[in-house]
Design a protein that fits this description.
It is a single chain. This protein folds into 2 domains: 3-71 and 102-178 and 266-358, FAD/NAD(P)-binding domain; 182-263, Alpha-Beta Plaits. Helix content is 32%, strand content 26%. The protein is built from 9 helices and 20 strands. The radius of gyration is 22 Å and the shape is globular.
């Protein structure tokens, strides 16, 4: 068994973990990020990067590296409800310079952040290192052990290992949340030869399909009840085409049900995000629904908030006296105090959205053709709605700054 020592050990190499590791290392804090997989490549992960995150990338001086990665900037998004196309979100109403969301494969974003971190001698990323549990002394978390038997001693352990967090379980934490009645079936298809306008979602009495444009294909999702399953790929394809007829020429790319990945949708949150020597952030602290694609961005916001309060008490060893445990715990408590309310507000919106999406009520919002009253409401309400949705989706509540 090998023993390592560091200031901060972060379990999980997702957006929250790598971003926090980068920020701490920039300040000279020694940090180890442990990622259980050998690489970042996992398909059907969230890949929506919002203006709040792009602003942070600018502030870090990483915009050139970010722009070098193939991605799909979207200044506007439509929705098709009951066959009626609606211009739903307009990010150009946001403050400059970043008035768009962009769709970048998460593994490319993580590679970029990890490369930036590697420029700092106090940043240590270990791939293929799975955390098995935590170590404690006198009621305080003192580090972690890996499945290979290595031990990492740390002044602070950060759980950023997702909604099935091993560290969170080892801490004895259990998230609380309301039941979500829908799951998401992810799949991909080529872009149709006939250009398809950038459309966030399609809703009809047959269900809801999300179509996320990537540079070379569409990453799609069919919303289903948790107890709903398809016996054949033909039945799955028929459902998709019934909702989105424009996908009929390319749906055969889903060759079998093995090409369809089910995401168990959760919306939950820890009553307490920390205990002496440990802190939970990102999905380990609060699982977000795929609605609005805010998961990456809320994880990154947690990381920024954590860095801002942790750096003053986690000075490089040898420069000042080590921070007292009490100061470190107070900083962890401050992270939850700052991020809990913005998270709860977004989750409340997501739960309401699932009620509409899961019950099919969204398809009843507009007739085809729209009635005179509906046309009036659309004409008066849509300009305001576009701005509000752009702000809520693009920045969320209480966006963080470096």
């Amino acid at each position: 068994m090998t023993t390592h020592r560091t200031d901060v050990c972060i379990a999980g190499g997702g957006p929250a973990g790598v971003f926090l590791g980068l920020l701490l290392a920039r300040a000279g804090v020694d940090v180890m990020v442990l990622e259980k997989h050998d690489d970042f490549f996992r398909d059907f992960r969230g890949d929506t990067v919002h203006p709040s995150t792009v602003n942070l990338i600018d502030a870090l001086g990483l915009r050139a590296a970010f722009d070098a990665v193939p991605h799909e900037p979207l200044p506007q998004l439509d929705a098709v409800i009951n066959g009626i196309r609606i211009h739903l979100v307009d990010f150009t109403t946001l403050p400059p310079p970043n008035r768009f969301i962009t769709l970048m494969p998460q593994w490319d974003l993580l590679d970029m952040l990890a490369e930036a971190g590697s420029r700092h001698p106090s940043f240590h990323l270990t791939m293929g290192a799975e955390v098995a549990g935590v170590t404690e002394r006198d009621g305080r978390v003192t580090g972690v052990v890996t499945t290979s038997g290595d031990a990492i001693e740390a002044r602070l352990v950060v759980a950023a290992d997702g909604r099935t967090s091993t560290v969170r379980d080892a801490l004895g934490f259990t998230p609380e949340g309301a039941q979500v009645d829908t799951d998401v079936l992810w799949f991909r298809v080529p872009r149709p030869e006939r250009p398809l306008p950038d459309t966030l979602g399609w809703a009809s009495t047959a269900g809801v399909v999300i179509t996320i444009p990537r540079p070379e294909y569409l990453q799609c999702a069919l919303l289903v009840r948790k107890d709903e399953h398809f016996d054949t790929v033909e039945a799955f394809r028929d459902r998709v085409v019934q909702i989105v007829p424009r996908l009929a020429p390319v749906i055969e790319a889903v060759a079998s049900l093995d090409d369809v990945k089910r995401l168990n949708v959760q919306i939950n949150r820890l009553p307490r995000w920390w205990r002496p020597g440990a802190l939970c952030i990102g999905d380990a602290a609060h699982a977000m629904s795929p609605v609005f694609g805010v998961g990456i961005n809320y994880a990154v916001q947690d990381a920024v908030a954590a860095a801002r309060v942790l750096i003053p008490v986690l000075r490089p060893r040898g420069s000042v006296k080590d921070a007292a445990d009490e100061a470190l715990d107070a900083a962890c408590e401050a992270v939850q105090r700052r991020r809990e309310r913005p998270t709860a507000m977004m989750q409340a919106i997501q739960r309401r959205a699932h009620v509409l999406l899961g019950t099919g009520r969204v398809a009843q919002l507009i007739d085809n053709p729209p009635t005179r009253a509906q046309r009036t409401v659309l004409r008066l309400a849509l300009p305001v709605l576009r701005r509000v949705v752009a702000q809520v989706v693009g920045y969320g509540f209480r966006p963080e700054r470096l």
